User: Which sequence fits this backbone?
């Protein structure tokens, strides 16, 4: 399991989330972070896909939870 900050996942703060995938990390968040997720979903489809494709290789550098 990995740990990432909201900012790392394109949010605006340093709250920490845990999970193996971006989806798990978002699900571990609270109501205040739904706005950040909504912002992520406003990205173009290609930009979202690129971010999700790159996540596994970038997550290797994340701190273990």
Assistant:
């Amino acid at each position: 399991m990995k740990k990432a900050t909201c900012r790392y996942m394109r949010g605006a703060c340093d709250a920490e989330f845990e999970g193996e995938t971006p989806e798990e990390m978002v699900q571990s968040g609270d109501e205040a972070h739904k706005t950040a997720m909504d912002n992520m979903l406003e990205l173009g489809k290609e930009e979202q896909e690129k971010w999700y494709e790159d996540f596994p290789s970038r997550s290797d550098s994340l701190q273990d939870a």
In short: DSSP finds three helices and three strands in the chain. The first helix runs from residue 22 to 27. Strands lie at 2-5, 16-19, 63-64. The longest strand covers residues 2-5.
